[in-house]
Amino acid sequence: xxxxxxxxxxxxxxxxxxxxxxxxxxxxxxxxxxxxxxxxxxxxxxxxxxxxxxxxxxxxxxxxxxxxxxxxxxxxxxxxxxxxxxxxxxx
Length: 91
What we know:
Order of helices and strands: EEEEEEEEE
CATH class: Mainly Beta
Helix content: under 10%
Number of helices: 0
Low-confidence stretches: none
Number of strands: 9
Strand order of the largest sheet: 1-2-9-4-7
CATH topology: Jelly Rolls
Structural class: mainly beta
Shape: globular
CATH architecture: Sandwich
Number of domains: 1
Oligomer: single chain
């Protein structure tokens, strides 16, 4: 099952996408082209499957984090509830 992206803003400077994950949904393996900020809208655990293995990340609603361009991963919702976050890509 795939996570559902909804682009809210896209212009010459940023792309803001709301991601919605049903339980068990995933993004599929992808590489980020831009630096980005994630703003969790719900709290829970996401599994990150990266080239060197997988790890679980505990996220808290409203507690943001940033990552650089080049991150390569698949993101999977391992919660029994829907998980949502905003992804803000900096062009």
